[in-house]
Amino acid sequence: MGSTHNVLLSAGDLGQRIIGNIRDSKQWPGLKTEIGDLDQCLMGFRPGDLVLLSGDRYAGKTALALSIARKLAIESDIGVLIFSPAKSAEYITSRLLLSESGCGMHGDIRLTSKDAPYLDKLVKAQQRLATAPITIYDQSAMGLDEIRGFSEGLKREVGLVLVDDIDDIVCDDETNITQSLKRLADQLSLPILAISPLDHSTVGQENCRPTLCNMDAGKIAHADSVLLTYCPSLFGLKAPDGTDLDDIMEVIIAKNRHSGEASVHLSFDVSTLECKSLA
């Protein structure tokens, strides 16, 4: 008779192991975003997860995604593969440079003589990015086959695949993009973070705050998690005490198969495009 393994496991022992892993910073239920407040709610991105990131225009979707990618690569040396059908690799890199350098130049890296003080910061940021395991697929009009092929080829070198955004992927009308990306995430045993615009306007909703109702049901059905970015200042809103909310982003965890729904407020610097935990 061949060898067998014990299939009867103690729930108590397993629970103790899980709690121990959570307490150990090196062991986490999923891939940490390195944004502490967000990690506490999400418990990380897990292998095979499809995470949708959506929100209104200018609500910081790409800024949040690239902040996560940059922190994973630079701070944790975890490989990130980025597909951006509608944005060039140069554009993506310029945004990474702005965030990493802390130079507040409103998304424009073109320097003049008066910007000379920024140059040293940018050079040092570039040196850090040069050694970071970030790969950007620089090709417009990409389809699912290209995303699948390059992801499979690099799956041993990356811990996260980022797609910005799914509506720019070339496919036929009958293809369910999120279903295909979920299948790919399972095949790769990697989390995929996919940016998607809202499908329905938030105008008329309380404070224009997005919910799952602003996305097509077929799009979110295959997602393990859905994150919605919300910047109250976009709609002229202030805190109850009248304080400006210009640097605040709310990340609404509207769906999460691994834990409950939640909400977390982050600091969002619109000039450097940096998202981080509130101090």
Quick take:
This protein is of the alpha/beta class and 279 residues long.
Written description of the protein model:
Helix content is 33%, strand content 18%. The model has no long low-confidence stretch (mean pLDDT 87). Strands 3-2-4-5-1-6-7-8-9 form a 9-stranded mixed β-sheet, sandwiched between helices. It has helices at residues 11-23, 36-42, 61-76, 89-101, 116-130, 144-154, 177-188, 217-220; strands at 50-55, 80-83, 134-137, 160-164, 192-195, 225-230, 248-256, 262-269, 274-277. The protein is of the alpha/beta class and 279 residues long.
Q: State the strand order across the main sheet.
A: 3-2-4-5-1-6-7-8-9
Tell me the radius of gyration. 20 Å
Unreliable stretches: none
Mean pLDDT: 87
Sketch the major β-sheet.
9 strands, mixed
Number of strands: 9
Q: What's the helix-strand series?
A: HHEHEHHEHEHEHEEEE
Which keywords apply here?
279 residues, alpha/beta, globular
